[in-house]
Write a structure and sequence with these properties.
With about 220 residues, this protein is an all-alpha fold. About 80% of the residues lie in helices and about 0% in strands. It has 8 helices and 2 strands. The chain has a two-stranded antiparallel ribbon with strand order 1-2.
């Protein structure tokens, strides 16, 4: 009961932990379609549960139904037909839309209060990982629409996990990825993600710091 209460009290912590656990788990699954499908469906369930916990609104329920359910179906469809570009592209676009909406909902959750709570601190980390996931699906779509948009040496076709690595390195601006955007469209998306990473720190993190300082002074 105590563990369940803690998980209910801090849904953003659950989401952050699940996202980081998925990062660690991906390499162990390799290219197994069944394992990747299971991991994808579980990840979507955790994302929807977390965002529902922090923002219970009728509109959110509709968006979760319109994006979350198709995302799960397309995740399974990818495992059945991994070579279908139409299925993979549809899945990438729906997943990207879902994760961007979740990030927006969680940022609104952080901004709605004037007092910093522990779950809001977890939410800032969870939102960051959700944004990285969203952009990685955008990269998947760009790669399908424009083969060779990304490259690393002689390699020009990358798995989702490799594009997720590119997304995290771009969002954090550490520049450690060996995958380079080659086409102009790919570079445009990378630029947008770089700006998003900087703006996230400038706006969201500074907002939390300001609220924390104000709480101590009051």
């Amino acid at each position: 009961m105590r563990l369940r209460d803690r998980l209910t009290e801090h849904p953003s912590a659950v989401l952050l932990g699940a996202q980081l656990a998925a990062v660690v788990a991906y390499p162990f699954f390799g290219d197994s379609p069944t394992a990747r499908t299971l991991l994808g469906v579980v990840s979507i369930c955790i994302v929807l549960l977390a965002v529902w916990s922090v923002r219970r609104t009728p509109a959110l329920n509709w968006v979760a139904a319109l994006l979350g359910v198709p995302a799960m179906i397309l995740t399974v469809a990818e495992a059945i037909r991994p070579g279908s570009n139409a299925v993979v592209l549809s899945s990438a676009l729906v997943h990207a839309s879902l994760y961007f909406y979740v990030a927006w909902a969680m940022i609104r959750y952080v901004f709605k209060d004037t007092v910093v709570t522990r779950d809001e601190l977890y939410s800032t980390g969870a939102t960051f990982t959700v944004l990285a996931w969203a952009f990685s699906y955008v990269y998947v779509a760009v790669q399908l629409l424009q083969p060779g948009a990304f490259a690393a040496g002689d390699t020009a076709d990358f798995r989702f996990y490799e594009l997720l690595f590119l997304s995290f390195t771009t969002l954090t601006s550490v520049g450690l990825s060996d995958i380079l955007p080659i086409s102009e469209h790919a570079r445009s998306v990378v630029i947008i993600e770089e700006v998003a990473g900087v703006m996230y720190i400038a706006l969201v993190i500074s907002r939390l710091v300001g609220m924390a300082v104000a709480s101590r002074e009051s």
